[in-house]
Protein: Dihydrodipicolinate synthase family protein
Organism: Mycolicibacterium brumae
Amino acid sequence: MPASGATISGIVAYPITPFTADGGIDHHSLHLVLDRLVDGGASAIAPLGSTGESAYLDLTEWTETAASTINHLGGRLPTVVGVSDLTTAGAARRARIAEGLGASAVMALPVSYWQLTALEVQKHFEAIAAAIDIPVMVYNNPATAGIDLSPTQLWELVRDVDNITMVKESTGDINRMHQLRELSDGTLPFFNGSNPLALEAFRAGAAGWCTAAPCLIPDQIRAFYDAIQRGDDETADAVFGRIQPLLKFIVTRGLPTAVKSGLALTGIPAGEPRRPLLPATEAEAAELSDLITASVG
Amino acid sequence: MPASGATISGIVAYPITPFTADGGIDHHSLHLVLDRLVDGGASAIAPLGSTGESAYLDLTEWTETAASTINHLGGRLPTVVGVSDLTTAGAARRARIAEGLGASAVMALPVSYWQLTALEVQKHFEAIAAAIDIPVMVYNNPATAGIDLSPTQLWELVRDVDNITMVKESTGDINRMHQLRELSDGTLPFFNGSNPLALEAFRAGAAGWCTAAPCLIPDQIRAFYDAIQRGDDETADAVFGRIQPLLKFIVTRGLPTAVKSGLALTGIPAGEPRRPLLPATEAEAAELSDLITASVG
Amino acid sequence: MPASGATISGIVAYPITPFTADGGIDHHSLHLVLDRLVDGGASAIAPLGSTGESAYLDLTEWTETAASTINHLGGRLPTVVGVSDLTTAGAARRARIAEGLGASAVMALPVSYWQLTALEVQKHFEAIAAAIDIPVMVYNNPATAGIDLSPTQLWELVRDVDNITMVKESTGDINRMHQLRELSDGTLPFFNGSNPLALEAFRAGAAGWCTAAPCLIPDQIRAFYDAIQRGDDETADAVFGRIQPLLKFIVTRGLPTAVKSGLALTGIPAGEPRRPLLPATEAEAAELSDLITASVG
Amino acid sequence: MPASGATISGIVAYPITPFTADGGIDHHSLHLVLDRLVDGGASAIAPLGSTGESAYLDLTEWTETAASTINHLGGRLPTVVGVSDLTTAGAARRARIAEGLGASAVMALPVSYWQLTALEVQKHFEAIAAAIDIPVMVYNNPATAGIDLSPTQLWELVRDVDNITMVKESTGDINRMHQLRELSDGTLPFFNGSNPLALEAFRAGAAGWCTAAPCLIPDQIRAFYDAIQRGDDETADAVFGRIQPLLKFIVTRGLPTAVKSGLALTGIPAGEPRRPLLPATEAEAAELSDLITASVG
């Protein structure tokens, strides 16, 4: 059931994981990105999601990045650490490490090479939750995970497992938001993970928006969320209209590649993504630069 | 270009990776499975594919399984070792290990958390091929990998990269088989990885069929392939009709779970799949048992 | 040459690494130990030395422990993180991780399975130092490392390599302390790592004492060091006389086993050491309890 | 008690682990070394001892090397695979892998950062033995391991633990050989691991000699052992006199460095040892070349 840990709401910002030229974690750049997110008004920080190239890090690098993020934030914002792993044992180990290092909550996607059954997904999440005492945010993203969890499945996980308290929904289907609200009678904090749906989702009652966009345009994201909070529909619409092309671009090109390219354009050298991902081409960087400029309005 | 290594054809059999009760690799059961595949007339063995739970093994377990398979076969059949990994560096390392241990060829799927661009896929495969001297089989399976490589892309990889010599196509779209044959003027050995398409694919000129079914019904698969080879369409149709429900069941339920359950039913205790995968229920095992019986005809 | 980082002096306290019942890192107990060391007046904290069972941790656990220590201290005291590893590449990687996580300095012992030549030791330390910008403390302990570095070798490393700035000497030979002072004309901060030599070493000009004893008797160690600092020989002698039997016991029994047993006796459950190390027997614990009591005076 | 596995005797040859220029395992060179050892009349092959740089390999490389050795030998000679690891769990895992890959026996040294108690050593070996069904050779080498096991301790391990069946003694103290024979009433196969003691040890009843020398001078080692076996003391003395300077050199310089240098001199490029180990200098290689020539007589 939604419990004490479920106090996260608003803009949940996703940092990339910067690499040095020799392929290690670039802590200095990571800290610059985190400071930008904090200064830009983010409500929580979610390291080691897909934007953070979590799937491409070995467990030591993952631990190093989680620790560096939590330590540098020093309690300024809550953290929701991505602990997705192909095996249940691996995800539970990551969850324990995250808790030990001081994470506020963890987030998990049922990534799987194989189509999992409903029971397999349930047992997977139960095992992660049982490994820790901090809250778990379950995450549905069929495009990435290959598994689609219905609003009912998501709600039942929250209802039945003590420290599963939040849901992140990334299908981009607004009806699911409505269903989550109805099923939970409004008690479930659900987060939207689909950038194009940000405006609609807040209007449907989403507790927050999980997005990497504040890495590049923190002020616009803050202006948008401020408008949402004070019920200023006109401004929210206007800002969202301006940032939408950028949102679409970074998702389509791939978040690590696009956000790292955009960080370089905005003064934070974040290195290249890890192969097979390739850095943005010059043409892509030019387009991105234009979109960043255009988003300011 | 198709080169010396491309002498693999026929039934490419996929063993599961059996685990002991404490979670380690069960070499004894693995050897029993391999002997059944050899005795059943398989043409090649493909360990550490998705059936082999490759994605759920750590690199040491992966190495242990590759070595145990190659060693136990002792040259009786060629091996096509799955080296898929999320990172390019990881896939190249696996390819080098497989070659060092005596694999005949390697197979790679462009698994990725992120949608890769055509150029990213190409560079990924080129890096794997450049790491070794043995042939590479490129594998297209959008349902698992999240990326769909067109026949043209697949053919260009074979045409342009020296030791990429074979293609495995698992979309289940027979038109792609025809395209591969036409694009390559009949020079490209392509393999079908979609069980329901086995009959049609051979008729479209496939060099082989990649399948885990011989783990459970080696004699039926052999009878089917013998009929194909001698052009006995009637028998091929009849056998395929009998085994199709089983093929459909094991794919739908998930190959590791279903094949391990079926092995237990047919005298080889192969343990449970690794979590999040769950073992087959009693009802599923009963259904599978009936399907195995029915396949004999 | 001794540079900015070389401001560490006094009691360099060595925490153990506590394990939970299922073998993971026990962050809660680790934090209790660290707080005791800070409250007890330690001057610096040196996690992941031999007391910290560094050699028995995998790299992820090592990273987790380094991060948890640095995070929990939050700048209250400088840290000197042990980065010893059998391979040069491994030690350099640990050094980079420690620096990234915010360590004040690193310490390295030339642990080796093989007797290293003087040139091999020199290249090893140079590679570690080259990997980072924070200071390196080189550590001589032939009993553990199997290699004995002479005062001349140690001094030359400090003199010739930019960020090697400190020496820890654990042979228990007071003459080496005198030689280090003479060779460096008093400019080299050297630390004593031999518990029985603590008093003599300070009198020979040691900058500090590296010891796990404050885990168990922080007040006595503080009283001893306060007396040393104010030149109160009589008190220093008296306190040292009282604590010496305890110092001898914990070294002889093995620091992880003895200190973990002593922590349990003094209110901090720190779990068992990792096998092959065994926990203290009841008789050993009883003896240790008496020695702790006797040390209070 | 000495059981079926204890049929290893004679020259137990230690291959180095060759690396490619980019630091991976060089399987081709490894196979050349193994063929030389087999052709040179070795009785058994002991990969992954200290000569094999086992301590410098990660677990995947260790597995790869064990598998490649066992596969390439293909049953021509029994294998005794080194499974030493700092932790008990690590050594037991290696033992299970070795058994799974088809090793004839395993060998373990109680390597430890900390001085282990007699009980800790006993429990460590019991855990390794309990993990497998193949024989265990316990190995005493205080110079490397930092722990000295008395003949009585060694004998009691063999007497009390089912599949501990052999002892390797490397102190170079001939009296220990006599004690082992007496304690076991001649039933215990003990092996000498001290090169300078080879002649004396065989005369004291040693079952075999564990040595890397056949990598460089297989014919001389065979001539020596043939003379031992037929009781031709004069020839044994003469040959041993000629090879002794070489034996001394390779031990003193460090076996991986010296043997790899010697292999290059005798036609097998084995690459460099892993850092911190450095390759032999030109002067050392010249000296080694002379010693190889002189050993022929």
Q: What stands out?
A: Residues 10-232 of chain B form a domain with the TIM Barrel fold (CATH 3.20.20.70).
